Amino acid sequence: MTDLHRAVPHMLIVGAGAIGSYYGSKLHRAGARVSFLCRSGGDMLRETGITIDSLHEERFHFHPQRVLMAGEPCPEPVDYIVLTTKVLPGISGVDIIRPYLGEQTVIVLIQNGIDIEVPYRQAYPEHEIISVLAFVCVSRLSPGKILHQDYGKLALGNYPEGKTPYLEALVELLRLGGVTCEVTDRVQEARWRKLVWNASFNTLSVLGGGVDTAQLLADEESCQLVRQVMEEVCLVAAAEGHRLVPSIVDEQIEHTRVMTPYKTSMLLDYENRRPMEVEVIAGNPMRKARLHGLSVPRLEMIYRLLRLQDAQRRRQRG
Amino acid sequence: MTDLHRAVPHMLIVGAGAIGSYYGSKLHRAGARVSFLCRSGGDMLRETGITIDSLHEERFHFHPQRVLMAGEPCPEPVDYIVLTTKVLPGISGVDIIRPYLGEQTVIVLIQNGIDIEVPYRQAYPEHEIISVLAFVCVSRLSPGKILHQDYGKLALGNYPEGKTPYLEALVELLRLGGVTCEVTDRVQEARWRKLVWNASFNTLSVLGGGVDTAQLLADEESCQLVRQVMEEVCLVAAAEGHRLVPSIVDEQIEHTRVMTPYKTSMLLDYENRRPMEVEVIAGNPMRKARLHGLSVPRLEMIYRLLRLQDAQRRRQRG
C-alpha cells in the first residue's frame, strides 16, 4: 500500500451501477474502504450489500463502507472520488462531488466520451484528475446485483497527460484487486482510440434499429458504414493532435468480428428507455470537427439522429 | 369519354390498399368499370365493397366490378392495369400483371421512388407505361375501409417522357371523378422532385426514432440534416439530367413547416412492422450517385441504416 493518502484509502464511488459496483468490488478486495454515493436504492445496498456474479470470475459479495445519498455529508475524508455514472446533459457530476472534495481528494472518471474532464478541470483547477477507460461487459440486473459477462481491463492516465504518484497508487490497488491495468501518460489518445469504437458501433447499433455487433458487420453496406465513421473519428483525433495508427480501423473491426455478438451499452440504454450518452460520444467529437473546419458528414448525421431519438424517448417517458 | 378503348373502360387496380381504393373510387365515380386484384381479403371486398371516409370530401361507397385473387383469370379485357402496391424486393409486379395484359392494355404505376418503371419497360417493351405520383394523405383502417385525410392531387406523364392519347383519356376520367391532375411530359423530373421530399422526410422520420414532420423541423440540427439530404438528391437528379430549381429545398421545407404535423408513410410502415420501400426511395438514387461518381454520404448512410432496420424488422416478424 502507498502512504500517499491514508494507509487504507477511502474511495467514494459515485453511482452504484454496473461499472461502479464492479470496480468497487475489486478495490474492496484489494483492501480499500469503498463507499458509494447514489441517487436511490441506498437502503437496499446498505442491508444486502453488492453481489457480483461473473461468467469468468468467482462470485463476490461485499458490504460498502458507507452508502450515502447524494448531498448527505460524509464523516470521513475521501481519498479518491470515482465517477462511474453516465455523462448526460443536466446531470452535473461537478456539483454532486463538491461536498466530498478535500484538499487532496483525487477525482477519478471511469466514463466514456471525449472532453468529459473539462468541467472538472474548470471547476477544480487544483485537484488531480485521473481519467479512466473501462473495457468490460458488465450489467446491473437489479440494485446490488451485478452480472460480469466479459473483459475488465482499465486504461488509466492523468488528465490532461502524465502519470502521478496518486495514479500509480490507484493502479497498485486495482492490480491487487485483480484488475488488468494499462497505464498511459497520453490518456486522451486512449480516449480517442476507444471513441473510434464507441462512436461507430454504439451509435449504429441503435440507429440500425437495435442490431448487435455481428449483425452490423454481417451486412457489407453497414460494415462499410462502420469503417467510414471510424475513419471520420480518426480524422478529428488527428486534428486534435492524436495520430492514431491507420490500422486501428481494421483492427477494431476484425477484433469485433471474432467477439461473441454483443449488444452495445448505448443499445441497452435505448432498449431500456434510458437516456443515451449522445453528447459525449457523438456531439463533442462533432463539435471538435467543426472547430477544425473538418467535414464529418456521418458523425454529424449520427449526432443529429441520436438527438432526435433521445428527445423522442424523453417524450415517450413523459 | 374517349373511344380509344371501350366506351366504358375497364380498370384493373392491383392492390386494394389506401391508394388503390381511393383513386379506384374516383374512377368508379367517373363511370369507369373498376376491378381489383388483391392478395387477401377478396371475399370481404366483394361482399361489403369499399368505403371512403374523408375529412374533406363526402363519404363514398362502391362495389368493385370484380375482385380477383392474384393469378385468377379475368374474363374481360383490361384497358388500364393500375399498380398501387408498395415497391418491394421479392414482390414482382411484372409477374403479377402478366395474365391480365392485352395488346392494348396500358400499364399505370401510382407508386413512389426512382426507376420503378424499368422492370416493366424491360418486360413489356411494347406496352405503354403511365407513371403517376400521388400527393395524398390516405390510410386503410381495415379491408375496404379507407380514411382520406388530406390532399389528393396526381402528377402524371408517360414513361420515359411525353403525353399520349391514352394518358389524356385517363386524365379526363380522373378529372371527371374529381381528382386534380397535373399532366407533365417530363414525369421523371416530377419523380425526382417528389423524391427530394421522400428521401429526406420519410427516411429521417424513421431513423430519428419515429418523429413527425414538425418534430424533424423543430430541432435546428435535424432541420439542417433534412436540407442536406435534399441537396444530395438534387445533385443526383442533376447528374441524371433533371435540373430541379435550387429553391425547391427551401420551398419543400417551408411548405412542410406549415402543414399539420404529419407521420410519413414510411414511418407508418415502420410502426406497423410492414416492410419499407428502402430500395426505391434510398437505394436507387444512391446507386445512381455511384454510377455518376458522386459523393452522397448522407443518402448512402440513410440507405445503409434503413437496410439494417428493415432486416431487423424481418427478423422480429420471424
From TrEMBL, chains A, B:
Residues 12-160 form the Ketopantoate reductase N-terminal domain. GO terms for molecular function: 2-dehydropantoate 2-reductase activity. InterPro entries: 6-PGluconate_DH-like_C_sf, 6PGD_dom2, ApbA, KPA_reductase, KPR-Related, KPR_N, NAD(P)-bd_dom_sf. Residues 187-308 form the Ketopantoate reductase C-terminal domain. Pathway: Cofactor biosynthesis; (R)-pantothenate biosynthesis; (R)-pantoate from 3-methyl-2-oxobutanoate: step 2/2. It is an enzyme of class 1 (oxidoreductase). Its EC number is 1.1.1.169. Pfam families: ApbA, ApbA_C. GO terms for cellular component: cytoplasm. One of its GO terms (biological process) is pantothenate biosynthetic process. It catalyses: (R)-pantoate + NADP(+) = 2-dehydropantoate + NADPH + H(+). Keywords: NADP, Oxidoreductase, Pantothenate biosynthesis. Catalyzes the NADPH-dependent reduction of ketopantoate into pantoic acid. Belongs to the ketopantoate reductase family. This is 2-dehydropantoate 2-reductase.
